[in-house]
From TrEMBL:
Name of the protein in its database record: 3-hydroxyisobutyrate dehydrogenase
Species in which this protein is naturally found: Limnohabitans planktonicus II-D5
UniProt GO MF annotations: 3-hydroxyisobutyrate dehydrogenase activity; NAD binding; NADP binding
Keywords annotated in UniProt: NAD, Oxidoreductase
Catalytic residue positions: 176
Organism lineage: Bacteria, Pseudomonadati, Pseudomonadota, Betaproteobacteria, Burkholderiales
Pfam families: NAD_binding_11, NAD_binding_2
Stretches assigned to the 3-hydroxyisobutyrate dehydrogenase-like NAD-binding domain: 170-290
Keyword match Oxidoreductase: yes
UniProt key word NAD: yes
GO biological process annotation, one example: L-valine catabolic process
Length: 310
């Protein structure tokens, strides 16, 4: 721990989500070492005071806590285990915080390996959208031992707004993929709900405002529907990530014997959109399939092309 009593942080993964989370730590004065496959992703963080490292070993060298925010379970495995991974280089007594949305069983396996090396683990997936990560207001779900949570609570409070302790390891991951499943279901539903009145001749702006003021409103409608109406779709969350998360939640449901009829249907809808528009297409572009089928784009003037926290 540094002289100013702030934990020293290593941060791995500086995509749209990771950069915003890390920036909150840098601005708050935490000593932060960062790395990513693309050094350009770290430029703004370095300018703000973060220190660049070329590899995981360097990020772990002086760290009390290492945070990973990575796009897939396979990449998390590669970064965390092995001779060049976090578990090989983070000191005994350190804490690894996994903020990626990852595979539940893989996380448990890696947590057991970490414990063998005297490293504590928390799962801390986030929910609410990239715009809330950028503003430090994103919700953080925490799974793991409460004592470890209390040791790093100041770090999590710096990155997030509401911090919710979910219980033992695995609980946060389950709830996280459920929240994502709901978001994707709501996205498909919002597209259908706006398209029907549009085909009848209702102004999409009026429909948006009516739904927002109704019992059918949702967080997704309030945010992502605006990106559909502006035509940008740019929520900074790709079709690949959406399909990955839907695969994770449906896999857990299958193991637990829980029938997710809407969840499995939504997974198929997103897979079809992924095939049509590519894995790097934005997740709200799932509505483009409906627009094409109806021969009508859902558009209205005055809507933003990106989301910014108020």
């Amino acid at each position: 721990m540094t002289l100013n009593n702030k934990l020293s942080i290593g941060f791995i993964g500086l995509g749209s989500l990771g950069e915003g989370l890390c920036n909150s730590l840098v601005k708050a004065g935490f000593p932060v070492a960062v790395t990513d496959l693309k050094r350009a992703n770290a430029d703004r963080l370095i300018a703000a005071g973060a220190v660049w490292s070329d590899d995981v070993k360097g990020v772990c060298a002086n760290a009390d806590v290492v945070i990973t925010v990575l796009p897939s379970p396979a990449i998390s495995r590669k970064v965390v285990e092995g001779v060049d991974g976090v578990l090989a280089h983070l000191r005994h007594g350190g804490v690894w915080i996994e903020m990626s949305t990852t595979d539940l069983e893989d996380l448990k396996r890696l947590s057991a390996k970490a414990a063998e090396r005297g490293i504590s683990v928390l799962e801390c997936p986030v929910t609410g959208g990239v715009h809330l990560a950028n503003s430090g207001e994103i919700t953080v779900l925490v799974g793991g031992e409460q004592e470890v949570f209390q040791r790093v609570e100041s770090v999590l409070q710096t990155m997030g707004g509401e911090i919710i302790y979910m219980g033992k390891m695995g609980c946060a991951s389950v709830v996280k993929v459920v929240t994502n499943m709901l978001a994707f279901i709501h996205l498909v539903a919002a597209g259908e709900a706006m398209m029907l009145p549009a085909k009848y001749g209702v102004d999409p702006d009026a429909t948006y405002r009516a739904i927002r003021a109704s019992s059918g409103n949702s967080f997704v409608h309030e945010t992502e529907s605006m990106l559909i109406l502006s035509g940008s779709y740019n929520v900074k969350f790709t079709m690949d990530l959406a399909c990955k998360d839907l695969g994770l939640v449906n896999s857990i449901a299958e193991k637990l014997g829980v029938p997710l009829e809407l969840g499995s249907m939504t997974q198929q809808i997103f897979r079809r959109a992924q095939g049509l528009y590519g894995g790097q297409a934005q997740s709200p572009e799932v509505v483009r399939m409906l627009e094409k089928a109806c021969g009508l784009e859902l558009r209205a003037d005055g809507y933003p092309t990106e989301l910014v926290a108020e």
